[in-house]
Write a structure and sequence with these properties.
5 helices, about 200 residues, seven-stranded antiparallel sheet, alpha+beta, single chain
Length: about 200
Amino acid sequence: MTEKKLTDELEKFSYALGMSIAGNLIQSGVKTVNPEIFLAAFKDTFEGEMPKIMPDEANKILEVFIGKANAEKGGDNLEEGLKFLAENSKQEGVIELPSGLQYKVLNEGEGDIPTASNQVKCHYHGTLINGTVFDSSVERGEPAVFPVNGVIQGWVEALQLMSAGSKWRLFIPSELAYGQQGAGGAIGPNTALIFEVELLEII
């Protein structure tokens, strides 16, 4: 089959839109579709034809299908996270708290310890347990400022144990992170997270 070249603005836009829709579907947990049926529905909707499924029913079908996909993915993520944390707790220097939060002190500061009502300035680098980076103030080159009680529970707990100037590596179980909902993008449901957090100052 000869590869079709994109020759004008509309063709390029159409291809880019297809890429975007496919990418969003994949992130939603959709692994495969029937391309002919997909394109037929797209054409019917775009041209104002009578749909073969009414909108209310279509929304329910999507909700059930994506819910099942997320539940399946969430189960896998939870199992992987629990296995990782169980092994990680045996590593030298790793401390596990009753909540399930684990941390390793990389550098111990000598400043004050913040309370839940404080604002703090931090540098951080967040990854999944497989090393995928999902957020990093370090890579952006700009520290983040936020209230201690305005972040995920694992951070709230850790920050109230850290002295200003400290740098810790946090290993956060999903229930102390974004839980069953996840946070979109790389952070799926029931995902354990790793952060390197440097508490620069209490504001």
